[in-house]
Design a protein that fits this description.
eleven-stranded mixed sheet, alpha/beta, globular, three-stranded antiparallel sheet
Length: 260
């Protein structure tokens, strides 16, 4: 190889390399879609106050730029009140903050899914991903576990007590989880101790609170499951009535910004 040619080539590349690096560094970052702007389905769940254990749910569809109610209000039961959860909403310090073991339902704006149930196949009309429950399925609520706030299927024969201090067995002896939908509270990222295993599910009755989930009659959760359409990017807005306008405004503002 000609040493002179190599020397000249290297000198040229010394000027070229910084130019390439500077160009790469100055490239604009890709703009990620705002899920609040993309949604065309809202599940709006309202409570009279932070300490309420009953409330209502309504389904709204965005049609021609307007939010239209899909159905009549559905009665729901909460845990022992509500508290701000970890979702898509702007942080707020105006009320209680959700923590593990407080038995409060999370307030905020959340993704939903998957649907789950005892049957091998999803209920008729279900369009969200479906996960059948088996006897080895647990939702981990041990804040010290690396799988905290995750749905884990244990290997056959493994005792969950050998792995975690606490985990909720998904295959219950009653009908509460016959049909359910995961409310994606505290999942992106997961913060230890901020609350786990939050679902929509079938209620016991109209007067018995949950321990943090939001429950409703069987017929109504089946209607909700049929209505939810992943193509419409559904979100849950859940809060005391006095806080709902602020959360709804965040969705409206995101939608306007996306159009500008």
């Amino acid at each position: 190889m000609n040493d002179g040619l190599l020397h000249v080539t290297y000198r040229r590349m010394r000027w070229l390399i910084p130019t390439i690096l500077i160009t790469a560094i100055n490239l604009p970052a890709a703009t990620l879609p705002n899920p609040l702007a993309q949604t065309r389905q809202l599940v709006v769940v309202s409570a009279p106050s932070w300490d309420s254990d009953t409330g209502t749910l309504m389904m709204l569809s965005k049609v021609a730029g307007q939010w239209v109610r899909y159905s009549n209000e559905v009665p729901v039961v909460f845990g022992h009140g509500l508290a701000w959860g970890r979702g898509l909403q702007l942080n707020s310090k105006s009320g209680p903050q959700k923590r593990e073991g407080d038995q409060r339902s999370p307030a905020g704006i959340f993704f939903v899914g998957p649907v789950f149930g005892y049957a091998k196949n999803p209920p008729a009309g279900c369009r969200l991903p479906y996960r059948p429950i088996t006897g080895r399925d647990y939702f981990v609520d041990d804040p010290n576990a690396k799988e905290y706030n995750q749905w884990i299927k244990l290997p056959s024969g493994m005792n969950p007590k050998q792995r975690w201090r606490s985990a909720e067995k998904m295959l219950r002896p009653d009908a509460l989880y016959q049909f359910g939908i995961v409310i994606r509270h505290n999942m992106d990222p997961i913060v230890k101790g901020a609350g786990s295993a939050i679902f929509f599910h079938v209620w016991r009755n109209a007067h018995t609170p949950t321990v943090g989930c939001t429950a409703m009659p069987r017929k109504d959760i089946l209607e909700l499951i049929r209505w939810l359409d992943p193509e419409k990017k559904p979100l849950v807005i859940q809060a005391p009535a006095a806080e709902l306008p602020k959360l709804r405004a965040q969705v409206r503002t995101a939608g306007r910004d996306a159009q500008d």
